C-alpha cells in the first residue's frame, strides 16, 4: 500500500475520504498542519490533498521522495510553491470552478449589505433608534455601475447576476482575458483600463489571483481614484489589498466602505483597525465554505488524485511545466 499513500495535512470531508478509500488508497492524516509534523509524513507519499492550513514550500518538498501530485480542495494555489513543484515533477491541481456559485453569492451578499447599510440598520434597531429609517441611508443597486478587476468564472458570474437582476452597468479590467472572449461579452460588458474601473464604478469587486505582480495591487493610489461613495469588495486573496492604505481610505472618507472576506494575515490580527471601523463588513474567509461547497471541493480534489493513481492527467493543472518532468513523460 506504500505505492498508494495519500497524505492529508488536515482532515477532509468524509465524502472525499470515501472516494479515496473506494480507489484502494491508503490515507495518512497529520495531527496538525504544521511543517514539523507534515514533513516526516511526506516520505513515501504519492499525493497530497491540500486545504489552506499549511503552505507546501520548497523546503517541505525536500522531504517528499515519491510525490506525484498536490491536489488543492480550493480554487487558489498560492499555498504551494509552484516553481519548486514543477522542478520536481509534482503536478499541482485545484478545484477551480467548483466554488464559483458559492463565492459569487457571498460577494453579492456583501455588496447588498453595504448598499442597504444592513450592519448599521441592525445596530440602530437594537439601540432603540427606529427613527434611523427616516435618514434614507440605504441605496439601490438598480442602474449602478459594477467594476470588476478580473473577469473569470466568479467575476463574470457576478456580472451576469447584477446586469440581469439590477440592470447594473458592467465595466471590467482583465489583462489576461483573450480578445475573442471579451468580444463575446460586447453587448453588455465594457472592458476598460484599471484606472477607469477605479474612477467610474459605484462598487468594485476583486477577482484576480495573488502573484508577485498583483501583491498590494489595490493601494492608496488606487483608492484615491475611486468615487467617495464607492465600495470595495474582496473575496479573492487578502494580499491583493494594501490593508494599511485601505484602513486610511475608510477612516478618511476616501471611499465609502468595504466588504472583506480575506485579509493580509489570517486569522486577522486582534489589533487590526479594520475591527474597529463601522464602514467595513468582515467575514472569515468563508465565501466558499458553505456546507455544500466544501463537500464539492473536497470530492473534486480527491477525484483528481484518483485519476493520477489511474495513470491519467488530471484537469486544472496550475503548473503545466511539471508535465515535462520524467515523472509524466511516460504517461
Tell me what you see in this structure.
The protein has helices at 14-22, 35-41, 58-61, 82-87, 100-115, 118-126, 153-166, 179-184, 194-200, 220-225, 243-251, 291-309, 326-329; strands at residues 5-8, 26-29, 47-50, 69-72, 91-93, 145-149, 169-173, 189-191, 203-206, 231-234, 257-260, 280-282. The protein is an alpha/beta fold and 331 residues long. It has 2 domains: 2-97 and 291-329, Rossmann fold (3-Layer(aba) Sandwich); 100-282, Rossmann fold (3-Layer(aba) Sandwich), CATH 3.40.50.720. The strands form 2 sheets. A 7-stranded parallel sheet has the order 8-7-6-9-10-11-12, with helices on both faces.
Summarize the structure.
Helices cover 35% and strands 14% of the residues.
CATH superfamily of the largest domain: NAD(P)-binding Rossmann-like Domain
- Into which percentage range does the β-strand content fall? 5-15%
- What general outline do the C-alpha atoms trace? globular
Rg for CA atoms: 22 Å
Q: What is the element string, with H for helices and E for strands?
A: EHEHEHEHEHHEHEHEHEHEHEEHH
Could you say how many structural domains there are in total? Answer: 2
Termini, distance in Å? Answer: 21 Å
CATH class descriptor name of the largest domain: Alpha Beta
Q: Oligomer, anyone?
A: single chain
Biggest sheet: strands side by side, in what order?
Answer: 8-7-6-9-10-11-12
Question: Which fold name fills CATH's third level, the topology of the largest domain?
Answer: Rossmann fold
Low-confidence stretches: none
The number of helices is 13
Structural class label = alpha/beta
Determine the fraction of residues in helical runs and give it as a percent range.
25-40%
Largest sheet: 7 strands, parallel
Beta strands, count:
12
Mean pLDDT: 97
CATH-derived architecture of the largest domain: 3-Layer(aba) Sandwich
